[in-house]
Amino acid sequence: AAGVIQSPRHLIKEKRETATLKCYPIPRHDTVYWYQQGPGQDPQFLISFYEKMQSDKGSIPDRFSAQQFSDYHSELNMSSLELGDSALYFCASSLVGNLDTQYFGPGTRLTVL
Amino acid sequence: DAKTTQPTSMDCAEGRAANLPCNHSTISGNEYVYWYRQIHSQGPQYIIHGLKNNETNEMASLIITEDRKSSTLILPHATLRDTAVYYCIVRVPLRNDYKLSFGAGTTVTVRA
Question: Which residues on B lie below 8 Å from A33 (Cβ)?
Fold first, then answer.
């Protein structure tokens, strides 16, 4: 079965640079979630989108923004990168009405030097 | 948010059943219990969920107590590939979607 696709899988950036992470949900899924997992930490919710509208924000820095496009894929834009942004970034998708079980992608490992 | 409490770690022998407990004493009536696992640095993997009845799928069984204040995830025949961090999560309803609040899960090590 098709799964959530994330790209790139690995990304290395310098401080103060910008990064864009992409997420392609499971076909027919209408909701996308972004999570951040720092080294040795548990995943933390950042933001979610339902039908291309932002649903809610968690602990997402103002330097980050995200959107969901008409084809339901989502992009997380990160500006003025800091060393502390180094983490795994997971995208998950779900289908509203299907008990909204979230299925996660393999993640993007962002390293900020 | 309903909080969950899990053991920090547990070992299991390969081929034996692994029983993972979770306490969620403040769970409300319409909140589901979800279990996910994360194998080292991979994306969390959905295992099973339930409301009040026991559930079983190809991966595991979920036993929820009658008062819903605790549950147990059962991996019937643990293999080395089941070594992972297991998260018990009570789903928080949030308008049209449901964010997952990951707490400190249980690190399960399956030994040969």
Answer: 97, 99-100
